[in-house]
Amino acid sequence: MLLSIILLPLACLPPRFAHAVELLDGEMQLHGFIMQGLVNTSDNNFFGQSHNRISSDFREFGVNASWRLKPELQLSAELLSHRAGGTDDGRLRLDYGLIDWTVHTSESGRSGVRLGRLKAAYGLYNTTRDVPFTRPSIILPQSIYFERTRNLTVSADGGEIYLERYGDGALLSASFALGRPQADTSAAKIALVGLAANGHLESDPTPDFHLLYETDGGKYRLGFTAARLKLHYHPGPGDNLQAGTFELRPLVFSAQYNDENWSLTGEYARRNTVINNFGPAFYNGHAAGESYYLQGTYRITPRWEALLRYDVFYADRNDRHGQTFSAATRWPGYLRFAKDWTTGIRYDVTSSFMLRAEIHRINGTGFLPVQDNPNPFAMQQRWNLYLLLASYRF
User: pTM of the predicted model, to two decimals?
Assistant: First the structure.
């Protein structure tokens, strides 16, 4: 029954393998994807009203194009529709749109500049998180790649300089970007200041440094990300909050090992968060957030892949289970942490059509969106999450 429901939106797609659409003698390429997910939870809600029912409010559709004007100059853009329960309404928008100018290229590497709406280089997966085929699981580890603040972290308007160096089977890439994230959205505001606030958010230019080292043809990968996000809240009429600021300084350390049939991935993040001047109606202060996950995937056959992951999020490593937070706010401490055991399976029906299933056993509600769970006292600390996904790409 569930499988037939999830396949219905994709039933009209052609059964053959799909390829990129090429125009202008191959100088322009078009790609796209469509995804439909189904969500069920034993308690709480995720991606819509999923508690003891099936939510279909999890779907994506994207079309991207790249046009090489000259060997050193390329234009790239993607239009995306992302529906995710109460956090995203599926409205079509520009996910990224940029011009990439390769200033220097040689046998030992290249360097260049990107301008426009840029994908934020964050960890191992953020730049490709929108395409279901490039994710290791239906949802990424929520300790690092939050869905509830996805639009705030996925892209920014600005510029980036990058450098790549090759040699002896190794690749070193580094980038530094400065841009304004998509801060003034209802999803970002609600995730940070709650449902009752009626003001708006404004972001300072955000610096983002990313470093990635690969060796032995990508068998070993090490990465590092550092960023600084500062947001200003401007209250609306009758607001119970004052003009306050959020400052978030994440550091992310990444490591991955890839063998012929299996991969092992781990990432660790420290997030210093400073919240000031919102007044007595808000939880002001400093928190030293900590997150990490360890993930293994095994390719059983060329078409089947299994996943096992343990994912941990603490809003404050000095108050791991929210006891201090609960004493100060009277809110449940489980809002401040989440521990997630995930098992999953992937089946590639063809090279263009993929099916996935996942089971999550979770302790804590630290990554749940308030839009789908407006009453924190109605949430349960221990809960299960079940996901199905079907995706097609060309």
Answer: 0.89
